[in-house]
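B., you asked whether I could sanity-check this one before it goes into the benchmark set. Here's the sequence:
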Amino acid sequence: MKRLRASKRYAAALLELALEQKRLDRVASDLELIRKSVSGSRDLELFFATPLIDRTKKAAVIAELFADRIDDLTRRFLGLLVEKGREQLIPGITIEFAEQLDDYRGIVDAEVRVPFEIDKANKSGLQSRLEELTRKKVRVTYKQDATLIGGFLAQIRDTVYDGSVRRQLEILRNELSENSGMQN
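And here's what the prediction gave me:
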Protein backbone atom coordinates (compact mmCIF):
# COMPACT_ATOMS: atom_id res chain seq x y z
CA MET A 1 0.00 0.00 0.00
CA LYS A 2 1.37 3.33 -1.06
CA ARG A 3 1.64 6.02 1.57
CA LEU A 4 2.17 9.41 0.05
CA ARG A 5 3.10 12.77 1.54
CA ALA A 6 -0.50 13.79 0.97
CA SER A 7 -1.59 11.00 3.36
CA LYS A 8 0.64 12.50 6.04
CA ARG A 9 -0.76 15.98 5.48
CA TYR A 10 -4.38 14.85 5.58
CA ALA A 11 -3.72 12.74 8.70
CA ALA A 12 -2.00 15.69 10.40
CA ALA A 13 -4.89 18.01 9.53
CA LEU A 14 -7.46 15.55 10.88
CA LEU A 15 -5.44 15.02 14.06
CA GLU A 16 -5.23 18.76 14.64
CA LEU A 17 -8.95 19.21 14.03
CA ALA A 18 -9.85 16.29 16.29
CA LEU A 19 -7.70 17.80 19.04
CA GLU A 20 -9.30 21.23 18.63
CA GLN A 21 -12.79 19.75 18.77
CA LYS A 22 -11.90 17.40 21.64
CA ARG A 23 -12.91 14.35 19.61
CA LEU A 24 -9.52 12.67 19.40
CA ASP A 25 -10.45 9.32 20.92
CA ARG A 26 -13.61 9.03 18.85
CA VAL A 27 -11.87 9.95 15.57
CA ALA A 28 -9.01 7.56 16.39
CA SER A 29 -11.43 4.67 16.92
CA ASP A 30 -13.30 5.65 13.72
CA LEU A 31 -10.10 5.54 11.67
CA GLU A 32 -9.17 2.19 13.21
CA LEU A 33 -12.58 0.84 12.18
CA ILE A 34 -12.12 2.22 8.66
CA ARG A 35 -8.58 0.80 8.44
CA LYS A 36 -9.77 -2.65 9.45
CA SER A 37 -12.73 -2.49 7.07
CA VAL A 38 -10.63 -1.45 4.08
CA SER A 39 -7.67 -3.73 4.79
CA GLY A 40 -10.04 -6.63 5.45
CA SER A 41 -11.70 -6.32 2.05
CA ARG A 42 -9.69 -6.33 -1.15
CA ASP A 43 -12.87 -5.32 -3.03
CA LEU A 44 -13.35 -2.27 -0.83
CA GLU A 45 -9.70 -1.30 -1.20
CA LEU A 46 -9.96 -1.56 -5.00
CA PHE A 47 -13.28 0.30 -4.94
CA PHE A 48 -11.64 3.34 -3.34
CA ALA A 49 -8.51 3.08 -5.48
CA THR A 50 -10.33 2.92 -8.82
CA PRO A 51 -10.73 6.38 -10.37
CA LEU A 52 -13.32 5.10 -12.89
CA ILE A 53 -16.00 4.71 -10.20
CA ASP A 54 -18.17 7.80 -9.82
CA ARG A 55 -17.52 9.92 -6.72
CA THR A 56 -21.24 10.03 -5.95
CA LYS A 57 -21.29 6.25 -5.75
CA LYS A 58 -18.22 6.24 -3.51
CA ALA A 59 -19.82 8.79 -1.18
CA ALA A 60 -22.98 6.65 -1.05
CA VAL A 61 -20.97 3.52 -0.19
CA ILE A 62 -19.12 5.37 2.59
CA ALA A 63 -22.43 6.65 3.97
CA GLU A 64 -23.95 3.18 3.88
CA LEU A 65 -20.95 1.40 5.39
CA PHE A 66 -20.21 3.84 8.18
CA ALA A 67 -23.43 5.89 8.59
CA ASP A 68 -24.15 5.36 12.28
CA ARG A 69 -20.76 3.97 13.21
CA ILE A 70 -18.50 7.02 12.93
CA ASP A 71 -18.42 10.55 14.30
CA ASP A 72 -19.70 13.43 12.19
CA LEU A 73 -16.17 14.90 11.96
CA THR A 74 -14.84 11.64 10.49
CA ARG A 75 -17.80 11.37 8.11
CA ARG A 76 -17.24 14.93 6.85
CA PHE A 77 -13.52 14.22 6.46
CA LEU A 78 -14.25 11.15 4.31
CA GLY A 79 -16.73 13.23 2.29
CA LEU A 80 -14.04 15.84 1.67
CA LEU A 81 -11.62 13.16 0.47
CA VAL A 82 -14.19 11.84 -2.00
CA GLU A 83 -15.11 15.36 -3.13
CA LYS A 84 -11.44 16.14 -3.84
CA GLY A 85 -10.88 12.79 -5.57
CA ARG A 86 -8.45 11.66 -2.86
CA GLU A 87 -10.34 8.61 -1.54
CA GLN A 88 -7.52 6.33 -2.71
CA LEU A 89 -5.49 7.84 0.16
CA ILE A 90 -7.85 6.50 2.84
CA PRO A 91 -5.78 3.38 3.70
CA GLY A 92 -2.57 5.44 3.97
CA ILE A 93 -4.27 8.18 5.97
CA THR A 94 -5.54 5.69 8.55
CA ILE A 95 -2.02 4.35 9.07
CA GLU A 96 -0.43 7.81 9.16
CA PHE A 97 -3.06 9.02 11.62
CA ALA A 98 -2.31 6.13 13.99
CA GLU A 99 1.44 6.84 13.79
CA GLN A 100 0.97 10.57 14.37
CA LEU A 101 -1.40 9.85 17.25
CA ASP A 102 1.25 7.63 18.85
CA ASP A 103 3.82 10.42 18.42
CA TYR A 104 1.41 12.91 20.00
CA ARG A 105 0.82 10.55 22.93
CA GLY A 106 4.52 9.73 23.28
CA ILE A 107 4.21 6.06 22.35
CA VAL A 108 6.69 4.03 20.29
CA ASP A 109 6.57 0.43 19.12
CA ALA A 110 9.39 -1.95 19.95
CA GLU A 111 10.04 -5.39 18.57
CA VAL A 112 12.04 -7.42 21.06
CA ARG A 113 13.61 -10.69 19.98
CA VAL A 114 14.45 -13.18 22.71
CA PRO A 115 15.82 -16.75 22.54
CA PHE A 116 12.97 -18.20 24.60
CA GLU A 117 9.75 -17.17 26.33
CA ILE A 118 10.43 -14.76 29.20
CA ASP A 119 8.34 -14.29 32.31
CA LYS A 120 6.14 -11.32 33.15
CA ALA A 121 8.65 -9.77 35.59
CA ASN A 122 11.45 -9.77 32.99
CA LYS A 123 9.09 -8.36 30.35
CA SER A 124 8.11 -5.58 32.73
CA GLY A 125 11.75 -4.82 33.60
CA LEU A 126 12.79 -4.77 29.94
CA GLN A 127 9.87 -2.51 29.03
CA SER A 128 10.79 -0.12 31.86
CA ARG A 129 14.40 -0.01 30.69
CA LEU A 130 13.33 0.71 27.09
CA GLU A 131 11.03 3.48 28.34
CA GLU A 132 13.96 5.00 30.26
CA LEU A 133 16.13 4.90 27.12
CA THR A 134 13.50 6.40 24.82
CA ARG A 135 11.76 8.64 27.36
CA LYS A 136 8.49 7.43 25.83
CA LYS A 137 5.83 4.86 26.54
CA VAL A 138 6.89 1.68 24.74
CA ARG A 139 4.45 -0.82 23.22
CA VAL A 140 6.42 -4.08 23.06
CA THR A 141 5.95 -7.06 20.77
CA TYR A 142 8.02 -10.12 21.69
CA LYS A 143 9.27 -12.64 19.14
CA GLN A 144 11.27 -15.76 19.78
CA ASP A 145 14.56 -16.00 17.87
CA ALA A 146 16.39 -19.31 18.14
CA THR A 147 19.57 -17.77 16.70
CA LEU A 148 20.10 -15.83 19.94
CA ILE A 149 22.07 -17.60 22.67
CA GLY A 150 20.70 -15.37 25.41
CA GLY A 151 19.83 -11.76 26.08
CA PHE A 152 17.69 -9.76 23.64
CA LEU A 153 17.63 -7.54 20.57
CA ALA A 154 15.20 -4.63 20.66
CA GLN A 155 14.35 -2.50 17.63
CA ILE A 156 12.58 0.82 18.03
CA ARG A 157 12.14 2.55 14.69
CA ASP A 158 15.66 2.66 13.20
CA THR A 159 17.52 2.01 16.45
CA VAL A 160 18.61 -1.46 17.60
CA TYR A 161 19.48 -2.10 21.24
CA ASP A 162 21.69 -5.18 21.34
CA GLY A 163 21.68 -6.85 24.72
CA SER A 164 22.47 -10.29 23.32
CA VAL A 165 25.02 -12.64 24.83
CA ARG A 166 26.78 -12.74 21.45
CA ARG A 167 27.27 -8.95 21.56
CA GLN A 168 28.50 -9.04 25.16
CA LEU A 169 31.05 -11.72 24.24
CA GLU A 170 32.14 -9.65 21.25
CA ILE A 171 32.71 -6.62 23.49
CA LEU A 172 34.67 -8.74 25.98
CA ARG A 173 36.81 -10.23 23.18
CA ASN A 174 37.60 -6.72 21.84
CA GLU A 175 38.55 -5.49 25.31
CA LEU A 176 40.79 -8.48 25.88
CA SER A 177 42.52 -8.09 22.54
CA GLU A 178 43.07 -4.35 23.19
CA ASN A 179 44.51 -5.07 26.64
CA SER A 180 46.80 -7.82 25.36
CA GLY A 181 48.06 -5.49 22.60
CA MET A 182 48.93 -2.82 25.19
CA GLN A 183 51.09 -5.20 27.22
CA ASN A 184 53.38 -6.11 24.33
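One thing to flag: The beta strands are 107-114, 137-144, 153-156, 159-162. Otherwise nothing jumped out at me.
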